[in-house]
Design brief:
alpha+beta, about 240 residues, two-stranded antiparallel ribbon, Hormone Receptor, Insulin-like Growth Factor Receptor 1, Chain A domain 2, about 20% helix, 17 strands, disordered C terminus
């Protein structure tokens, strides 16, 4: 260390020299040696650069180098990112992943092998031939299933997701589309017509009953009351002729 030590340093240094740079850092900063050609210069940083990890001591905070195969690390024995050509597994950088694991070239990590998973088969479809369900005796029916989990590079591949088998049905003629549509339309019109007819009849019946009821009420109001019939016994009483 150069004997010329200064107290008025720049860049976070607590003490420094013109030849060696920072000799100590201000509180909470990390001291690290940077190589410039054949010379090492001390600098003070708020965090350690890539390839270094920080350790804190009562008198100084230092940045120390990670292992040679490690790009970033938490401690010297625990890597968080490996250099090119190595795969990260449990804090270590490996050239080859252990058995039961596979190398993920995207994340450069050793990951678990994932096998394909599929859903249950769907029910068999109706027996069909050329997209129709009539006009034939022998056809095909199919069923399908979906892929729930796609496999990883070393995982078991997915099986077929469709199955087909022969089927036999009782032969029946196909109804012409135009004729069938026409018949359906006629049935619908007839049904609407019958419903309208029944509705009209019900309305007429209600109107007739209402009119009859009103007519009877009017007749009762206008018809004079009948006189009480005379007592037949009084009419047949004998006449007094003594006078």
């Amino acid at each position: 260390v150069h004997p010329n030590v200064s107290q008025g340093c720049q860049g976070g240094c607590a003490t420094c020299s013109d030849y060696n740079g920072c000799l100590s850092c201000k509180p909470r900063l990390f001291f690290v040696l940077e190589r410039i050609g054949m010379k090492q210069i001390g600098v003070c940083l708020s965090s350690c650069p890539s390839g270094y990890y920080g350790t804190r001591y009562p008198d100084i905070n230092k940045c120390a180098k990670c292992k040679a195969d490690c790009d970033t690390c938490f401690t010297r024995n625990f890597c968080t990112k490996c250099k090119s050509g190595f795969y990260l597994y449990s804090g270590k950088c490996l050239e080859k992943c252990p058995d039961g694991l596979e190398a993920n070239n995207h994340t450069m990590e050793c990951t678990s092998i994932v096998h394909c998973e599929t859903s249950e088969w769907s029910p068999w479809s109706p027996c069909m031939k050329k997209g129709k369900t009539c006009g034939f005796k022998r056809g095909n029916e199919v069923r399908v299933r979906e892929i729930i989990q796609h496999p990883s590079a070393r995982g078991n591949p997915c099986p077929a997701t469709t199955e087909s088998r022969k089927c036999i049905v009782q032969r029946k003629r196909c109804q012409k589309e135009g004729k069938g549509k026409k018949n359906r339309e006629e049935k619908r019109k007839k049904s609407n017509k019958d419903e309208s007819k029944e509705t009209r009849q019900e309305s007429k019946g209600r109107a007739a009953r209402r009119q009859n009821r009103e007519q009877r009420e009017n007749n009762n109001k206008t018809q004079p009351k009948k006189r009480k019939a005379p007592n037949k016994e009084e009419d047949l009483a004998p006449v007094d002729t003594a006078h």
